[in-house]
Design goal:
about 325 residues, five-stranded mixed sheet, alpha/beta, D-Maltodextrin-Binding Protein, domain 2, 14 helices, 2 domains
Length: about 325
């Protein structure tokens, strides 16, 4: 059974919680899964609940609503949640700092560069002097990868070639709709909403990675938990991953399973809804193997070389033990 327990209203509240860590959950307690309300994980959780996959598997999930993607990691480190969804690059840095975390892929969906339908820009070479919105910050992984790609393909640093401005994904989506920016590098959900309403994609981060030699493209986002939690609740972790896989199989093949999710997805049109479904399905990950591990290691180095030391930390070494059940 899935139960919603509380909301971490913001990073400030989560940080306050981090100052007062609580013990790990006792055996038999519900698995506390952090989820951003209306985020894609909430779609999976709703599918699990409606199909009673949790009940059939004998797992009780307690959903911890968090206000942002940044609040989830804080909740995990403060023992306010048992499992979160986050980037493995963050989890790798935490392992280097002594916090033994584990990661299992959740989504390989990636963002893209989008322009208005009538724009003359057809590739990144056309972005010279253009106002380019970038979701996140100057150390966002997609931005760093785009800069590395631009240096390789057109011999230019996009930070100087275009006029980038950084901001929240929904705000930048509105900025391009209103014509205040010429192009946007946005997260996959917002990019799908744009392309589903008539905008055109000129470059995906998936293409960027492959061009940089990162192939197969590894999932960046996944479930993250502590090793000591798994030591006491290994069956719960295995069951969670199993029922998520079952829910994804339903969402991948059953169009009718998406209709109950409309209130969570909140598409502005049928076109947006179809684009989001297609993007989500494309991002359902395959099992990790040796190829994905090698790609992840190369990606980490590309990010560090591109200026991500602030996020990854100086001296952080790639640790394959982070990846749960990954074949080597």
């Amino acid at each position: 059974m899935i139960d919603r327990r509380r909301v971490l209203a913001g990073t400030g509240l989560a940080l306050a919680a981090a100052a007062l860590p609580v013990p790990l959950r006792a055996a038999g307690a519900p698995l506390r899964l952090a989820s951003v309300k209306f985020g894609s994980l909430s779609w999976v959780i709703d599918t699990i609940r409606k199909r009673e996959l949790d009940k059939k598997a004998g797992l009780t999930i307690e959903v911890v609503d968090v206000a942002s993607n940044q609040a989830g990691p804080v909740a995990l480190l403060a023992n306010g949640a048992d499992v979160i969804v986050s980037d493995w690059t963050w989890a790798m840095r935490q392992r280097a700092l002594g916090e033994k975390l584990k990661f299992s892929p959740y989504s390989s969906a990636l963002g893209s560069v989008v322009v208005p339908a009538k724009s003359e820009v057809s590739n990144i070479g056309g972005l010279q002097g253009k106002a380019l919105g970038v979701a996140g910050s100057a150390i966002d992984k997609s931005w760093l990868l785009l800069r590395a790609y631009a240096k390789k393909t057109i011999g230019q640093d996009m930070a100087q070639y275009a006029h980038p401005s950084f901001g929240a994904a929904p705000l930048l989506a509105e900025e391009i709709r209103s014509g205040r920016i010429d192009a946007v590098l946005n997260f996959w959900t917002y990019a799908a909403r744009l392309t589903g309403s008539g905008f055109k994609e000129i470059l995906s981060i998936n293409e960027v990675m492959k061009n940089l030699g990162i192939d197969p493209v590894p999932s960046l986002v996944g479930f993250v938990w502590k090793e000591d939690y798994e030591a006491a609740h290994g069956n719960d972790i295995a069951t969670l991953l199993k029922i998520v896989e079952e829910a994804n199989a339903i969402l991948a093949s059953d169009d009718s399973a998406w209709e109950p999710l409309r209130p969570l997805v909140k598409p502005a049109s049928d076109g947006e809804f179809k684009a989001i479904i297609a993007a989500y399905r494309t991002g359902i990950p395959k099992p990790w193997g040796a190829g994905e591990l090698k790609s992840a290691e190369k990606l980490m180095q590309v990010l560090i070389d591109a200026g991500d030391a602030e996020l990854m930390g100086h001296g952080t070494a790639f640790d394959a033990k982070l990846f749960h059940n990954a074949a080597t």
